[in-house]
Design a protein that fits this description.
The protein is α/β, with parallel strands linked by helices. The chain has 3 helices and 9 strands, in the order βαβαβββαββββ. A 6-stranded mixed sheet has the order 4-3-2-5-6-7, sandwiched between helices. The chain is globular and about 45 Å long. The two termini are 17 Å apart. It binds inosinic acid and magnesium ion.
Length: 178
Amino acid sequence: MDSRHKLELLIPREEIAQAISRLATEIRRDYQRKAPLLVGVLRGAFVFLADLVRELEIPLSIDFVEVESYRATTSMGVVRITHEVSLPVQGRHVLVVEDIVDTGRTTSHLLEHLRRREPASLRLCALLDKPSRREVPVTIDYLGFTVPDRFLVGYGLDMDQQYRQLPAIYALEEGDGG
Ligand code: IMP
Ligand code: MG
């Protein structure tokens, strides 16, 4: 592990596992006979998606989408799809799987984008929600945890591409560059 940042354990791996079991129960109940298309948002959601699908035990397909947000310039963040969902979306029950909803800009842009491809239904599953930072309203249909306004890493989440491999979720210590 890189030692430049001080990390504080926020959500231990056992609690993540419990949340995933709960989410899997809800999703299984709602999608039992719908053969949903799960769309993981790269790169942060890859760990969450991998753990979630192994608990679902229903027929489903998996695809990925990559989204980039540029928020260097003041208020308006620009969101761009850099890797499209390759499988057909039209008529499918699509469940987007996100690591974290922060300002909501990335997710709301992505949901609008997918809605134009006419899925039979479109819902959102997010491991983490940081509601204190919301700028654009987003409905999270399946949520793991509500988290405070701190910069988080681990379990797929990165700080400059580091720490994604950590098995739990950590907060960067204040004043540590997060
Ligand atoms: P939003 O568009 O502001 O909602 O940002 C969503 C994206 O920003 C997420 O999918 C993450 O990739 C990234 N992000 C937001 N907060 C954090 C964090 O605390 N740690 C790591 N990445 C984050
Ligand atoms: Mg992300």
